[in-house]
Amino acid sequence: MKTRIAVFVSGGGTNLQALIHAQAENKIPDGEIALVLSSRADAYALKRAEAASIPTAVVSRKEAKSAEDFEAKILAALESHGIEMIVLAGFMSILSENFTARFPARILNVHPSLIPSFCGAGFYGLRVHEAALSYGVKVTGATVHFVNEIPDGGQILLQKAVEIREGDTPEILQKRVMEEAEWILLPKATAMVAKRIRDEKTEK
Ligand code: GAR
What we know:
Blueprint: E1 3-9, H1 14-24, E2 31-38, H2 45-51, E3 56-58, H3 67-80, E4 85-88, H4 97-100, E5 107-111, H5 126-135, E6 139-146, E7 156-163, H6 170-203
Helix pairs in contact: 1-6, 5-6
Bound molecules: glycinamide ribonucleotide (GAR).
């Protein structure tokens, strides 16, 4: 059986869209996106999932009583959909060790810089690109890594460099990093890990 994947989102969902395209082109042959879980009810990513006929769940961080309550609700949704692997694609909440330890080497994240630059708590979305531009680096990029208890600290799977150009704004740079790196790396890493998990099941 294919590896059942949940994609976690909070916003626009362009990385989710890249995964949906890759799946349609059979580039994730050992995995199946079985759930899209959003931490916000108004995330546009949910519309992309619905358009692709992928089941969705909303677990609101704001409405959860605590971090524990938030994660317990997420775990319940994962269980009811038989999820074996998680892809964080613009998911803007940090998961605790209690959660990440349940899925060792089974949670992926895409981060819009070359880790260990411009990463960790507080570095997300446009802020990452603002930090790269204000530091004045000439090269940035994206990283796909496993998720553990350290924010952006898990093992690196794939990285790709992207050039910074004269006149870049955070928005222009964000778009270039997505187009040249994130949307390519995330489906590729997802396919690799889905295959590994499927192989582990058949070996048993
Ligand atoms: C992406 O650039 C992703 O790398 C970043 O948020 C954006 C989400 O866009 N993630 C982080 O900063 C995580 N620390 P999307 O919703 O269009 O995929």
